[in-house]
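Researcher: Re-running this chain for the archive, since the previous output was lost when a drive failed. Same request as before.
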Amino acid sequence: MRAPASEFEREFPGGSESANVCSMALVQVGERLLACIDQTLRHHHLSRAGREALAVLEGAGQPLSPTAIAERLLVTTASVTSLLDTLERRGLVERRPDLSDRRRLLVVITDDGRALVDQFLPEVVALQTAALAGLSERQRTQLCTLLEAVGAGLADVDTAQLVRTAPPRGTPRQP
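Model: Regenerated structure tokens:
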């Protein structure tokens, strides 16, 4: 015999109340962590996207095309163009012709850009360590395993199909 549907499941047929609660908690914690990182690194006067672009370039260990940077940051090439303009004005990156294909540009992190990454990455690591200090090493491993499973599940979601087949909302909860 099936247990009676919860109020949530009557309102959202086919939905899962626990999946909703977990999703909301994941988003809220992620947003709080990013806000803490932004606040901690504010003194560098660099946007989150700027920090991420510099970290991508520094981590690549070689010049990258603007398209490759956009792909790694999960943004459009138009967004990267504007971002690179800002970083270049600050002397943190340079655009140079690709010697193997002069129609293309490659982005190179400068010594000043590398020095800035060397300043902010240890601050990010310290914040990440503090944020997860309440979890044991075993719990962190479990959390990573669970988050990898969520990410893998998202990779398999056909959002267009999901939108087409989502059941209509049931009776909203009464206040």
